[in-house]
Amino acid sequence: MAVYAWRGRNNRGEAVQGQLDALSENSVADQLMAMGVAPVHIGAITEKAAKSTQDNWLERLTRPPVVVEDILIFSRQMYTLNKAGVPILRAFAGLEASSTKPAMVDLLKDIRSSLDQGRELSAALARHQEIFGPFYISMIRVGEMTGKLTEVFLRLNEHMEFERDVRERIKQAMRYPVFVMIAMVIAVVILNIFVIPVFAKVFAGFNAELPLITRGLLGFSAFMLTWWPLLVAGGIGLGMLVRSYIRTPAGRYNWDSRKLKLPIVGEIILKATLARFARSFALSSQSGVPLVQALTVVAQTVDNAYIGSRIEQMRDGIERGESISRCAAATGVFTPVVLQMISVGEETGELDNLLFEIAGMYERETDYNIKGLSAAIEPILLAIVGVLVLLLALGVFLPLWNLGQAAMGKGGG
């Protein structure tokens, strides 16, 4: 199989171009005509040119990687193409030709090459597990087994849209608090490096005992000026140490457990994680995945080691023959209302629908809490800013006030 470069015009008369892997020029022409492209020129790329293109490491290093939004668009496109009855190889050829992102083109090309070699779609995607993730690949495998691949692509698209929406809303809510905290840190650094040392020279000429707050400010400023290289190195080293610890299984578990107990944001993280669990579990169960296998996959997709361990605890209980509701209650992370809904769904055989209801309930609560996140954090930030301004004002102006009072007393005497 060789690589062919082609140029042509699409249905709107626009000039398009790209590269395709095929056995001959006629095969390339057939693929282009199937994609609605009228070929103008088709030529084989020499081995040297193809190798130079593949080995351009600088381009590969600097080009944008495949992100969640790319996979979301890919899922929507595959749903549309599958629904229209387009063969899967032709669908991937069309996506490859229409994609403008080099990393996505390479990904689609590798997947199509795997399909050409006789692999299943799930096996081809599994070669890029760091991009698609275990849940996505497992759902595609279930879709292939049950013949519901089109519906699976639609469900995956909806699932990824929800997760992206939650992430974007959290980022939007945290943007103002993070900006204020960064501004506070910069202000403290500037004051300690440029402002307070000037006042230190002024206070040194008073030949009088300074107030405790002023001595504290001057001492902290002198400490920063003297030891700032060690402070910077220590901060970087501590950050790397914490990051390395969190990457270990025990560190990830402890950090994910403590995140759920953080004030204000802990409840949001818990509800968003449980919403992801309920939607993933419902999607897996509705697609025909056995309960034990579904919980195993969902435990890897909730993005929280602590909640994942509780889901695995549910799985172990179900393997022992216990009911889903009893296993869910033993985890200690679900509210009584949710446990009651799980119990009703288990009794009536409508667990899938009720899990979607649970996911919707957690999503609405998450949305409500996110909207109030900024309002809850702003008073705390204002209090911190007020305390810093008060300490600075007292530390700087209290000696000046005492000096003025002393001067007035001497003048009156």
UniProtKB/TrEMBL annotation:
<feature type="domain" description="Type II secretion system protein GspF">
    <location>
        <begin position="277"/>
        <end position="399"/>
    </location>
</feature>
<feature type="domain" description="Type II secretion system protein GspF">
    <location>
        <begin position="74"/>
        <end position="197"/>
    </location>
</feature>
<keyword id="KW-0472">Membrane</keyword>
<dbReference type="InterPro" id="IPR003004">
    <property type="entry name" value="GspF/PilC"/>
</dbReference>
<dbReference type="InterPro" id="IPR042094">
    <property type="entry name" value="T2SS_GspF_sf"/>
</dbReference>
<dbReference type="GO" id="GO:0005886">
    <property type="term" value="C:plasma membrane"/>
</dbReference>
<keyword id="KW-1003">Cell membrane</keyword>
<comment type="similarity">
    <text>Belongs to the GSP F family.</text>
</comment>
<dbReference type="Pfam" id="PF00482">
    <property type="entry name" value="T2SSF"/>
</dbReference>
<feature type="transmembrane region" description="Helical">
    <location>
        <begin position="220"/>
        <end position="242"/>
    </location>
</feature>
<keyword id="KW-0812">Transmembrane</keyword>
<keyword id="KW-1133">Transmembrane helix</keyword>
<keyword id="KW-0997">Cell inner membrane</keyword>
<protein>
    <submittedName>
        <fullName>MSHA biogenesis protein MshG</fullName>
    </submittedName>
</protein>
<dbReference type="GO" id="GO:0015628">
    <property type="term" value="P:protein secretion by the type II secretion system"/>
</dbReference>
<dbReference type="InterPro" id="IPR018076">
    <property type="entry name" value="T2SS_GspF_dom"/>
</dbReference>
<feature type="transmembrane region" description="Helical">
    <location>
        <begin position="176"/>
        <end position="200"/>
    </location>
</feature>
<feature type="transmembrane region" description="Helical">
    <location>
        <begin position="380"/>
        <end position="401"/>
    </location>
</feature>
